[in-house]
Amino acid sequence: MFAKFASRLALVVATLALAACAAPGTQAPGAMEVRQGKIEQITPIQLQNSHHTGVGAVIGGVAGLGVGSLIGGGTGRDVAMVLGTVGGALAGNEVQKKYEKPVPGQQIIVRTNSGVLVSVTQAANAGLRVGQRVYIEGSGEGARVMAQ
Asked: What distance in Å separates the CA atoms of residue 71 and residue 83, rounded to the nearest whole number?
């Protein structure tokens, strides 16, 4: 009796799992959503340059570890290595912040053909203007507004 119930339950779970995989609105791997609309507003903004986030902290930490390993011996040396790593990471992060320059960007509000307002933040594109027909390629963080 229990074996028959368990096999039916497994069949129901497998059916639900397969149905969820074939849910409407999902995209095939590699597919990209493209919507059309018209630009209603463009606001200039400054984007943070995040190409090398954390590099300064890593380099500073390694340098601090090296300096800490030269100090003392035994437990004192271990403590110096830990403090050197933490201090170097903090210092390296602060140095990196000073040399990162903001990048010009735009917040673009597009009214899609279906009437939905979509806000996209991206690097500045001088070819875009209010009232222009555009494509919105992608979704979420990866969305970009492109001229038609």
From this structure: 11
For residue 75, the model assigns a pLDDT of: 84
Handedness of CA 22, 24, 25, 28 (dihedral sign): positive
Q: Which of 53, 48, 82, 54 is nearest to 67 (CA)?
A: 82
Q: What values do phi and psi take at 88, rounded to 5?
A: -65, -40
pLDDT tens-place string over residues 19-47:
555 545 555 566 667 899 999 999 999 88
What is the spatial distance between Cα 50 and Cα 45, in angstroms, rounded to a whole number?
Answer: 15
Listed by start position, the domains of the chain span: 30-49+101-148, 55-99
CATH architecture of structural domain 30-49+101-148: Beta Barrel (2.40)
> For residues 11-43, b (16+ Cβ closer than 10 Å) or e, as one string?
eeeeeeeeeeeeeeeeeeeeeeeebebebeebe
What integer is the mean pLDDT of 3-11? Answer: 59
| DSSP run (H or E) holding 18 | helix 2-21
Pair of tokens at residue 69 = 């390993």
**pLDDT number for residue 19:** 55
Q: What is the pTM (predicted TM-score) of this model?
A: 0.50
